[in-house]
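Duplicate of #3305? Posting structure anyway:
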């Protein structure tokens, strides 16, 4: 395959505030004591530093306030944990995901030849039996060279990965990369989507399902080989 080489790009905005500028602020103007960009920036920085709660976000902000003031306005200091909770409870998750992926793309150089596995996993202990909520199933794209999750989409069930994968691919810049997917994603439309985005693909095969149900490959020489050996 050759060595992974970085692709030079023109200088562009890599700030969190810049990439989240299109995110709708759900708050009423008269109740805004903190800038939305400040709240989002502190939340992301805290999470990247292994923060796992609203309290951790507030604590991170207070601990690093001097540093944060170098690039954030913070007109009323650090937001409280309740503020983080209320704001994120009302933010549109689809808008947030789009903004976040845009920011990740800006800080991560594109690498020609990177391997990007796409896979679905059920989030452990994410179910809520008391309220009848099933466990969360996420489809993720992972950049092996960068050790970075490039994007995720939530699906209702594992069977919905087939429809979620093309949507996730639409969000990613994968030109020159190799996308690998397990047998669940071995579909003609998914292969076409990857090629459309100027990437290559590697699909694994579940032979029992593959021979009987996958019309795209049903008459392929590979199937003939398995049938005769």
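Output from current build:
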């Amino acid at each position: 395959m050759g060595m992974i080489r970085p692709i030079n790009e023109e200088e562009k905005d890599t700030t969190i505030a810049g990439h989240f500028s299109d995110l709708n602020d759900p708050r009423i103007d008269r109740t805004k004591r903190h800038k939305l960009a400040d709240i989002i920036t502190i939340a992301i920085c805290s999470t990247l530093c292994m923060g796992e709660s609203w309290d951790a976000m507030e604590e991170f902000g207070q601990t690093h306030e001097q540093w944060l003031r170098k690039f954030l306005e913070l007109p009323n200091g650090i937001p409280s944990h309740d503020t983080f909770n209320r704001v994120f409870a009302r933010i549109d998750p689809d808008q947030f995901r789009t903004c976040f992926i845009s920011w990740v793309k800006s800080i991560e150089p594109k690498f020609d030849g990177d391997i990007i596995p796409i896979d679905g996993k059920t989030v452990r202990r994410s179910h809520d039996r008391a309220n009848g909520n099933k466990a969360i199933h996420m489809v993720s794209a992972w950049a092996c060279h960068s050790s970075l999750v490039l994007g995720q989409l939530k699906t209702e069930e594992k069977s919905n990965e087939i429809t979620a994968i093309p949507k996730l691919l639409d969000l990613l810049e994968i030109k020159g990369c190799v996308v690998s997917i397990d047998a669940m994603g071995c579909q003609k439309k998914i292969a076409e989507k990857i090629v459309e985005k100027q990437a290559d693909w590697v699909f694994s095969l579940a032979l029992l399902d593959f021979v009987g149900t996958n019309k795209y490959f049903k008459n392929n020489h590979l199937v003939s080989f398995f049938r005769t050996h």
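Confirmed duplicate; merging threads. DSSP finds ten helices and seven strands in the chain. The first helix runs from residue 16 to 19.
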